[in-house]
What does this fold into?
Amino acid sequence: MTVNLHDKYKVLQQNLKDMGSVAVAFSSGVDSTFLLKAALEALGSDNVIAVTASSCSFPGRELKEAKEFCEKNGVRHIICKSEELDIDGFRQNPKNRCYLCKHELFEKIWDIARQNGMNAVAEGSNMDDNGDYRPGLIAVKELGVSSPLRQAELYKEEIRELSKEMGLPTWDKQSFACLSSRFVYGETISEKKLGMVDKAEQLLLDMGFHQVRVRIHGNIARIEVLPDEISKIVEEENRTRIANQLKEYGFDYVTLDLLGYRTGSMNETLDEKEKEIK
It folds into this structure.
């Protein structure tokens, strides 16, 4: 751990202490797990709660990991039902889909925070999130939700390094975003297709691929894996197994993105004007 990281962590700890008490939006991912652990160290378990949203766009494996982490670390854990598909306009997958979801979600988390006597709500975005189209961060700002990792100017790789030093099991966990982010803008999001994506990604993870996305375009699956794992996925045995299995899940065609995994690849078709939140 470098001196710079020590300094950033001290800033993070002080910012959390200044809150007095906090409800952490907890998805069991790399960032929110690190934030939750830091909050526990700064404030103690009496002044921290973890809130996890359960919906059809949140895989069961992630909810299970969230429960296990909180049980192991003695965190008060509240699971709230937050079904994005019930939000007006969400199913149509507009370009501000993430804004609609986050606004509704953080309103619920604020209610839970107040009911449990928490002074603040915090979420786990980091400095890398400043460089992509993230309409959800507009909702974060509007609702007065804190972003302690960004305030401490922590980047993803630094969070992974600190997490490893702290012995967190998520230090090398794959990056994750809700399954709705796999849909091309304007395509209707349905429970059935969310299930198809979830099963397809779980298959790839079970086969040992480390960072995966299965983007959905109609009934076409566009698979993204790390560039150095592309050769593995096109091996005949793997290629045949994946294609056959995804067709069983409901896809008509199975394709591989030759550029490999990258965050926000669905945003590559948007121009700057389209990224403005109305």
The first strand starts at residue 22 and ends at 25. The first helix runs from residue 3 to 19.
